Amino acid sequence: MTHRFLKAYTLLLLAFVFAPIAASVVFSFNADRFPTLPLGGFTLDWYRAIFEDPLVREAFANSLVVGLCASLLSTALGFGAAYADYRYRFLGKKAYLALGLLPPTVPAIILGVAMLAYLSRLGLANGLHSIVLAHTVICTPFAMALIRLRLGQIDASVEPAAWNLGASEWVALRQVILPFAAPALFASLCLTAAVSFDEFAIAWFVGGLGETLPVRVLGFLQGQVSPRINAIGTVVFAVTMTLVVVAQLVLVRKGALGRERQA
């Protein structure tokens, strides 16, 4: 009885979370200008309209560039932070981990204002580079947590064994640690790119004239309600979910292969 109740509760929770998204996807194909039931007909005109809009195309390209740069930077920083946690024992390690994982817990508006003030003092505000820097800050903890989880699965004696066989610390890192962490690194690239691609508030604060796709949606909302918003939302959701699913599949597949080898 309890098992059935938990399954029903989970299904209801998922339905509650995804119902607005499903409605947006359905209405993005509605021929009527306003969301109505029954649908006025099936059309791809709203998708055609956004891909023919130069501002939307520019914002989409900006999102791709920012997402790629932020994912590369945050994955590199996240690996360094995770490896330091795995490799070394030092005073204040718990505080180090707490601070490293802190940014996602800060409200986006507060973090956006703080990043705007800080980048303005450095003369780096208002541009795609400022969005990349800000997104790197919020994405690095995700990369750190993911890679840290993977490194926690490695045998602690593997790296010392490589040293005993004559490998330097850099060689052991390159030929032992990095290959083992490769699935987490790839998953981190996908996950952080998804976080960056979907982020709005911080990009709106620090980006200036450099609009990403979620910020462009705000431009439509400030004018008039347009069905193009549903189409853009569907594209953003599809891209982010694809990245997240790919990251999850890589981790699950590598985890299954690891268990098979141990067996």
Key terms for this structure?
single chain, 263 residues, mainly alpha, MetI-like fold, 2 domains, 11 helices, 78% helix
Topology-level CATH name of the largest domain: MetI-like fold
Alpha-carbon Rg, integer? 22 Å
Distance between the termini: 35 Å
Helix content: over 70%
Would you identify the regions where 5 or more consecutive residues have pLDDT less than 50?
A: none
Known CATH architecture of the largest domain: Orthogonal Bundle
The 3D shape can be described as: globular
Main β sheet profile = none
SSE order: HHHHHHHHHHH
Determine the CATH superfamily of the largest domain: MetI-like
Give the amount of beta strand, in percent.
Answer: under 5%
Number of domains: 2
Mean pLDDT: 83
Secondary-structure-derived class: mainly alpha
Number of strands: 0
Could you please describe the fold and organization of this structure?
The structure is a single chain. The protein is mostly helical and 263 residues long. It folds into two domains: 1-43; 54-262, Orthogonal Bundle (MetI-like fold). The chain has helices spanning 2-27, 45-52, 54-87, 93-100, 108-122, 128-151, 158-164, 169-198, 201-206, 213-223, 228-262. Helix 2 crosses helix 11 (228-262). It is globular. It starts with a helix and ends with a helix.
